[in-house]
Amino acid sequence: MNSFKTERTKVKRIPDRGHYDKKTIYPIIDEALYCHVGINHNGNPVVIPTIHTRQDNTLYIHGSAASRLLKSIPGENNICVTITLLDGIVLARAAFHHSLNYRSVVIFGKGDIVDDPQEKWDALKIVSDHLIPGRWEDARQPNQKELDATTVISISLEEASAKVRTGPPGDEDEDYALPIWAGVLPLALTKGELVPDPVLSESIDIPDYLR
Amino acid sequence: MNSFKTERTKVKRIPDRGHYDKKTIYPIIDEALYCHVGINHNGNPVVIPTIHTRQDNTLYIHGSAASRLLKSIPGENNICVTITLLDGIVLARAAFHHSLNYRSVVIFGKGDIVDDPQEKWDALKIVSDHLIPGRWEDARQPNQKELDATTVISISLEEASAKVRTGPPGDEDEDYALPIWAGVLPLALTKGELVPDPVLSESIDIPDYLR
């Protein structure tokens, strides 16, 4: 399947911004460090942020086996996972045309608990690789008690859409002559200086994969 | 009312991370540039990112009057608005104890359309002030056609919780002796260099409020 377009994922507002192909959707999923998961809980929507990763056509989210969110997911026929990357504030001449530049993905699907020990182990490794490549091999890897305390949920990617806005503002024709500065203020999630654990031994250097 | 704690908003997992006071919740809402709104659409959860702002005890979200999301909200008894700020990746010695530093708020409430023209105008101004203080006065302000094409939803803040993780990793006692680097990689949304609209007249300088 090369398109994730369905009646439900079709972008109705400003359809030019809608995308349904893996080439657009996968990089957005992969760049984001967290997602927002929406479920129905007793008929009411509940939206919770959590960590995700993707391998091939499967999205994984994980968390504590005690988490209410993760415990509710396997019983749900439908969950919604939304991922948003903010790229800038769009300053138009007209207040009405102000906007954000962003890349977002909305995924509909069914979540299943990953029971197979090897798939669960591999999923935890790719969650780790997603956050910090190289960390998994360096860290003390999970023991059985820790694996049992962790739930991994897999969601097969079948219904999804991306919505993307890029570029300069779009103003009304008659407003371009106004003496108002217009353009984009770029925004990006950036890394700061590493902060060592206060109890870290000074003999332990920062590993190459963190530099 | 000084606490937003209810049975539904009470943080069950790691309750020490749960907060219910305005002093914790309001600054998280105010720092974030966007939120994720969850609604039930034909019984299925749908989560959409959008722009918000807050004044006193009211959260405002706004968008096109043609938006499916905004059109569905007034009929819903319950919506969920979740706001997440990512502050860093927490590198523990054990893979299991890796985490994110974050500040998130989950709000449950009912959305009402803002019909009163003055309240709607004021809400649009504070949405603008939230994104870029000073911009509203400089931009060409909305005309009646644009106001009619915009829907503003108000949500009274009554049920909410914040969840906050800060600081260094927490490892198992026996792992602190391992020769593994541990600490926090800070992350923050940062502003880049302004990008002028390609058709902007060179005679228009960047205004002070954008410097």
What does this structure look like?
The structure is a homodimer of 211-residue chains. With 211 residues, chain A is an alpha+beta fold. Chain A has a domain of 142 residues: Roll (Pnp Oxidase, Chain A), CATH 2.30.110. Chain A is 18% helix and 37% strand. In chain A, the strands form 2 sheets. In chain A, strands 1, 2, 3, 6, 7, 10 and 11 form a 7-stranded antiparallel β-sheet that branches. In chain A, β4 and β5 form a beta hairpin. The longest helix of chain A is centred in the middle third of the chain and has 15 residues. Chains A and B meet through β2, β3, β6, β7 and α3 of A and β2, β3, β6, β7 and α3 of B. β11 of chain A pairs antiparallel with β11 of chain B.
What's the helix and strand layout?
The structure is a homodimer of 211-residue chains.
Chain A: E1 18-19, H1 22-31, E2 35-41, E3 44-50, E4 52-55, E5 58-64, H2 68-72, E6 79-91, E7 99-109, E8 111-113, H3 117-131, H4 135-138, H5 144-148, E9 150-156, E10 159-165, E11 183-191, E12 195-196
Antiparallel strand pairs in A: 1-10, 2-3, 2-6, 4-5, 5-9, 6-7, 6-11, 7-10, 8-9
